[in-house]
Prior knowledge:
Blueprint: H1 15-21, H2 38-49, H3 66-78, H4 81-91, H5 97-100, H6 102-111, H7 113-127, H8 143-150, H9 160-174, H10 181-186
Amino acid sequence: MSRLTPPAPWTPLSDAAWAALQPFLPALSPQGRRLADPRARLDAIFHLAHLPGAAWKHLPERFGRPDTVARFFRRLTHAGFWHALLRALAKAPPGHPLRALEYAICRACRRTARLGGLPLLRLIRRLGLRSALGAPPWLLPDPLLSETLHRLPLGPRPGAAVLRSLGRLLRDAAGRARIPRSVRLGWA
Length: 188
């Protein structure tokens, strides 16, 4: 089952939403220092995720230094926070507080595409959370299709037509090398 999450305006994290996010937060403080207000940093990440195409430097001053929030975001990504959050979101029942954050989580996951790579893309496709994709699915790599094609038994001498068809399928599975900005920003 695949679904697009309807857009929702940004709102600061509620106490229930923060409580739902806390179990997934890794211990990210370097050198054993206490992390200063992770809730405010997540608020900043979600706020920026709601602004299509906005750079970290466009973060309002009330959220702190943009480079600090960006570093926190990268650490979360490398720690697997977004992967775990997407899995929990897919399993969450309709009334769960994570469901109220679904649009914000999906938008934030779009920013993780380069850092999360194909494993994140594969996870998003398997969970059916199309809103977390940075462009329409047919323009992005399809790791599930390429894995399936790789396992096909072709026999000793496949015909030319079969090889041409497989070549087209593999090109489609690889996705587009460049996705126009207008398509990325207009997608969901």
